[in-house]
Design goal:
12 helices; two-stranded antiparallel sheet; mainly alpha
Length: about 290
């Protein structure tokens, strides 16, 4: 008699039936995980492919794709880091560089200030350095220029002394303005025993002695007929004036270096504003 199981190969659940040996039947469980090599269910494929627009949007919005697209765009266009990052880095680099230069300047100035006090390592040379300091002061130069202008008999001599006097007054004006604007304090190891100081002399940048030495040195070499040894002495005097400012502790190294450069440029300004006797007479005639 045939078995009822043979007539009904599947139950009402619709599960597939596999036939086996010895008349046994095995039922496939729907909860059994699929093999990796097997294809996904048709329903899953249908859901994934039902809306291709949504799938493309999901792929384009993924973080990996955004990062990849950004790097590829940047490399393709040849652009570097964002501009705001460069703006953040540049000021910090400038500040670090300026701080390093300032530290080196202060260290060198302290090491070279060997005549700042009588008990310094070179304290015995301090009187000589103070004498060189007075030789570069503005008052002796102004008084000497006025005296030479008054005693000069030739028109050429009066012209030279008049423009030298104008250059000295211009030097005092420009140095005073820069000192009042910058307001850099003098070195801490300085003793305020300078000759004939004024209100702006409590500031150190730039060195007025250095500007005056550079400007007067160029002026003398250009407008006075001097022998070679005297020309060497003029250059040596200008260098010693600048060196004395650092050795006495009056200025930092950068004050003197900038002062030399400023005085060198001031001479060019004096040449541009040069006053001849005819020009001076014309100006005096207009004022009269």
């Amino acid at each position: 008699m045939p078995s009822p199981k043979a007539k009904n190969p599947s139950r009402g659940s619709g599960s597939p039936v596999l036939g086996g040996s010895n008349g046994r039947y095995e039922f496939m469980s729907l909860t059994k995980p699929l093999n990796r090599s097997s294809a996904p269910p048709p329903l899953l494929l249908q859901r994934q492919g039902s809306d291709p627009t949504t799938a493309r949007l999901r792929v384009s919005e993924s973080p990996t794709r955004r990062r990849g697209s950004g790097s590829s765009t940047g490399s393709a266009s040849g652009q570097g880091p964002p501009e705001e990052d460069g703006l953040r880095l540049n000021p910090s680099f400038v500040r670090v560089a300026l701080s390093s230069l300032l530290a080196i300047d202060l260290w060198m100035s302290k090491r070279l200030g060997v005549c700042a006090c009588e008990d310094s390592s070179w304290g015995s040379v301090r009187p000589l350095m103070k004498l060189i300091e007075i030789s570069g002061h503005g008052i002796p130069w102004l008084a000497g220029s006025v005296y030479c202008l008054y005693k000069s008999d030739s028109a050429t001599g009066q012209e030279v002394m008049l423009n030298l006097l104008m250059g000295l007054l211009l030097d005092l004006l420009l140095v005073g303005i820069v000192k009042a604007v910058v307001r850099r304090r003098r070195p801490s190891h300085n003793r305020m025993d300078m000759f004939a100081t004024f209100s702006v002399d409590r500031y150190s940048f730039p060195s007025g002695h250095a500007t005056r030495a550079a400007m007067c040195g160029r002026f003398l070499l250009a407008h006075l007929v001097l022998a070679a040894p005297l020309r060497v002495l003029v250059l040596l005097w200008a260098a010693l004036v600048g060196l004395s400012r650092v050795m006495l502790g009056r200025h930092n190294v950068t004050d003197v270096m900038f002062g030399f450069w400023m005085g060198y440029c001031q001479y060019n300004l004096v040449e541009m504003l040069w006053l001849s006797p005819q020009t001076l007479q014309g100006l005096l005639g207009q004022l009269a």
